[in-house]
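Predict both folds.
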Amino acid sequence: MNAVRTCVGCRQTGLRAELIRVIFSQGKLAFDQEKILPGRGSWLHPKLSCFALAVDRGSFARSFRARMNLENLATLKEQAEKMLDK
């Protein structure tokens, strides 16, 4: 059975293998490329547009039930620009 997840950006479903996991650990957001780190995770399509939608909508704060530090979001955005499709 293939695991299905919902992208926090566009809100469309996709297979776990097709999405990227974002975790919130020790007060910081990070990409979990191996999808093995412990803790709560959010899922994104590998597109900058989905990342931008998630930030604009406040999806990370809602998903992790925590306030998001703008500095953490900026750092994650830099990483996203390097690794996600435009």
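Second protein follows, with its predicted structure tokens after the sequence.
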Amino acid sequence: MMKKITLFTLLTFITTVSFGQLELQSFEVAADAESFAQASSIGFEYVENPFKDDNNDSDNCLKISSTDGAHAWWGLIRIPVDPVVTISAAESKFLSIMVNYPAQPDLAVRLLGSGVAQINGTNPQVLRALNQYDSSEGKVNTWQEIVFEIKDGPDAFAYTHGDLDRIVFHPDVADRNEPSGRVISDVVFGYIDNIRILDENPLTALSVENISLEDAISIYPTSVASTFKVKTTQTINNVSLFNILGKEVSKNMVNLNNEAYDISSLVTGVYIVKVTVDNGSFMTKKIIKK
């Protein structure tokens, strides 16, 4: 039986760079075969991460295929949420999934509560992501964060606030993926990893821990080819760098001088700069490594 635990209780014990998070599935341990289910010739298996990078260097992930290459639009993998997460009607949360594909996929999810009958995907009312997988040159087969909003109302479809116990993941819907159509087949694969629920939308600018530092510290440019600078009237105690999963990657950042930092060795992606001043206060800012 699934245990129930409130999101508030879990987030009390979980700290990230700038927002609370709850990890639902990291795919580091192979699940019981009965705990996951699939439909419409969608197949999956636990594999070693074949594309480790700074956005996702975990050891294992879930490899997704179409076992006969002819899956329907509603092909799916049902992923149980255990322990069950309780989200109140007053909360606004975001579902984050790390994704790695050889082309831009059309991704969708259903978020099912314990009071909702099992749904395999027999109608087109699925929840689309807030962002798309970037398939531009040099971006395919890299790990990228795809974000879905967890909300109430007509766009929530099967989910109603309360107990969230299933994620139905549609890895290749395709009807909004023109001209490329479906991506995965029996020889072409997609990969997913690190499914989390977040307090805030990671696609938007991160809030500062201490608002008084917002005017005192400037980090620029926010789109970085090699070097960014930190300007401040405060005495800096430390400048650290994190990837979007909250893992510190500061060892790959070169301090050129008191205000310039070189990240040319890092792969492209979203990073978070954390600046701590001498009184212990800090601020964070999202930058994009080009």
